[in-house]
Automatic annotation (TrEMBL):
Pfam families: rRNA_methylase. Keywords: Methyltransferase, Transferase. Gene3D superfamilies: Vaccinia Virus protein VP39 (3.40.50.150). One of its GO terms (biological process) is methylation. This is Class I SAM-dependent methyltransferase.
Length: 196
């Protein structure tokens, strides 16, 4: 397209596109309705693997339905992304988070939470390859959203600059609580990122 200043979701996909290689393992930390899982499954190709997490069975079912023939590239986990290290081995090429509640669901009280989100990001940083990227689409308009985004911002700002680069990206003229993106790029090999 002729557009360069993309919305958050397409911009996060461009970042994944730039760093993830065919055949790699990647993570969709918040499967939801499976849109990012589908994108990632196409990106890694038939030799790649997507680990998809959600705490709602209905979300994983919707994702499996969305994936169709690409399901053989996906490993589903009905568990919190905070337990990612129980299932996934390093190195992974990239990971996507889409915070908040499941769109179109009846229960909008099931949301991602500060502690588990940060624990998941922290662990995935250890699992990531050098040069890998984590994208986090952050919504702070719903109840509990601001607490989560504040905690996450404080966490990413505490990461050592020799370990990672962190950016915040947002369209500044959108109405009605648009999401912003936090993206973290791993600059060197480490198993646990340094907090300062
Ligand atoms: N990317 C998804 C899509 O394309 O449809 C939308 C994700 S939705 C905004 C957030 C999802 O995170 C919800 O489905 C919710 O159940 C899930 N979630 C909440 N807490 C979680 C946790 N601790 N671990 C994994 N998933 C979680």
């Amino acid at each position: 397209s002729h557009i360069h200043l993309h919305r958050v979701l397409p911009y996060s996909k461009r970042l994944m596109n730039a760093v993830v290689l065919p055949g790699e393992t990647v993570i969709d930390a918040t499967a939801g309705n499976g849109n990012d899982t589908y994108f990632l499954a196409e990106l890694v190709g038939e030799k790649g693997k997507v680990f998809a997490f959600d705490i709602q069975e209905s979300a994983l079912a919707a994702t499996a339905e969305r994936l169709g023939p690409l399901n053989d590239r996906v490993s589903y986990h009905l568990d919190s992304h905070a337990n990612v290290d129980r299932y996934v081995e390093r190195p992974i090429g990239g990971a996507m988070f889409n915070l908040g509640y499941l769109p179109y669901s009846e229960d909008k009280t099931i949301i991602t939470k500060p502690d588990s989100t940060i624990e998941a990001v922290h662990k995935i940083l250890g699992l990531l390859k050098k040069g890998g990227i984590i994208t986090i689409s952050v919504y702070d308009g719903h109840e509990g959203g601001k607490e989560e985004s504040d905690a996450l911002i404080e966490y990413v700002q505490s990461l050592h600059q020799a370990d990672v680069h962190v950016i915040r990206y947002e369209l500044m003229n959108l109405r009605n609580n648009p999401p912003f993106l936090i993206a973290i790029e791993k600059l060197r090999d480490f198993e646990e990122v340094t907090r300062i």
